Amino acid sequence: MRKILTLILLLLLNFELLGNLKQSIYVAVLQTQSYTVGAANPPTGLYRYDGDTTWTHLGWKNARNFGIAVDPSNPSYLFLASGNGALRSLDGGQNWKITTDWRMTEILDIVMAPQNTDQVYLASAYGIWRTTDQGETWMPASQGLKPTFVQTIAVDRSTPDRILAGGEGGLFESIDGAENWTKSNIENTIILDLAQSPSAPQYWIAGTEDKGVLLSADNGKSWKFAAGKIASQTIYAVAFNPGDPKRMAAGGFQTGVFISSDGGNSWSQHKKGLSSLDIHALAFDLEKSNRIWIGTLGAGMFFSDDLGIIWTFAGLRGSDVWDMMIVPSNE
User: Fold this and answer.
1) Cα 63 from Cα 287, distance rounded (Å)
2) Across-strand partners of 116?
């Protein structure tokens, strides 16, 4: 009888937890290591977190998704950057439409303009494209980009027509809504990820190939490389704490997670509890200031409630998690 009462209590607590969730976590799973020949294998594509280690799959079951964009004011409206184009859903991920044509493949990142989510920008192996009508029509936007392989793109929250993009050619800037691009003075550096502080937009961080992270405290006018052990790492994912621009995180190839609490002047490296040290997605929790979520290559999702010191498995075992986005609930 006691065991039954305990089980009921745990179920009630779990339901209460799910009912109190004030944010939604979306991840793009590119592939999974858990396939078994002849078995019912888990689908790839978009997942949404439901609590504990439970994730709900949304949309196509075998999509190759590289990036996620969700409208915070209307989470029913979202995009996926996919191998075969930009996929759009207007009903929270239940139904999807490919909005791009045959010219637009290998979409590696996608972002909505914070000031007007009808405007969407995508980065691909073949350049940048933009839309002003939720993807109904797309226009090429690569003037000045050389080479055109773009890995990451971000819209400046403080200046609507200013966009930063990074890839094989380094870091590029547009101040006219992606009509034209100019290259920064950062030479011989491949940019893999970009993030702007939600609370202090003058702070930026970029992940690089083999050179750690780049930091800017003047809204991208100047950049400097972080020093220390992180300086020689390949960093796939970077993020700011939403309320503290001095606190940031970075992860990449065989790195575990690097944490800085002083604006990038010093970094501590953390691995305890991780079954994969390859980090490809990373985000700070919107409610718990010390919680960080990461997506790994080959081991699924983890979180830490002590700024990375100890990591706890959070589901999607065996998965390659390629991107993550946390959005506040609109309820």
Assistant:
1) 30
2) 113
CATH fold of 27-328: Methylamine Dehydrogenase; Chain H (2.130.10)
**Torsions phi, psi for 95 (to 5 deg):** -130, 145
Residue 268 has pLDDT above 80, yes or no: yes
Give the strand pairing for 182-183 and 170-174: antiparallel
Q: Are 110 and 90 in contact (CB under 8 A)?
A: no
Q: Please check whether residue 32 is in contact with residue 23, taking contact to mean a CB–CB distance below 8 angstroms.
A: no
Q: Tokens 């979306």 label which residue?
A: 26
Other CB atoms closer than 10 Å to residue 151's CB: what's the count?
23
Question: Could you give the CA distance from residue 86 to residue 102 in angstroms, rounded to a whole number?
Answer: 11
What's the pTM? 0.90
- Write out pLDDT tens, residues 5-64: 222 223 333 333 334 458 999 999 987 766 555 556 678 889 999 888 899 999 887 778
Q: Which two structure tokens, joined as six digits, stand for 244?
A: 């503290």
CB contact at 8 A, 302 and 313 = yes
Q: Which two tokens stand for residue 247?
A: 């606190």
| Residue whose structure tokens are 């999974």 | 32
In a 3-state reduction of DSSP, which class is residue 234?
Answer: coil
Strand order in the sheet with 85-89: 65-70, 78-82, 85-89, 97-98
One-letter amino acid at 225 equals F
Beta-carbon neighbour count of residue 35 at 10 Å?
A: 10
